Structure to design on (48 residues):
């Protein structure tokens, strides 16, 4: 297998994984959970 072909395959796989992560991160069904996690440091009353 040629290095150029292998490099192209790895690039395409990386791009697909990156797009999948973007879709997961900006998915509407995860919004409430991410907002709750983002408020955790502010809502912590103990200071710990």
């Amino acid at each position: 297998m040629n290095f150029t072909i292998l490099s192209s395959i790895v690039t395409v796989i990386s791009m697909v994984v990156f797009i999948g992560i973007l879709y997961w991160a900006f998915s509407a069904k995860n919004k409430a959970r991410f907002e709750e996690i983002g408020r955790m440091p502010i809502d912590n009353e103990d200071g710990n």
Summary: Residues 34 and 40 are 10 Å apart (CA to CA). The chain has a mean pLDDT of 88.
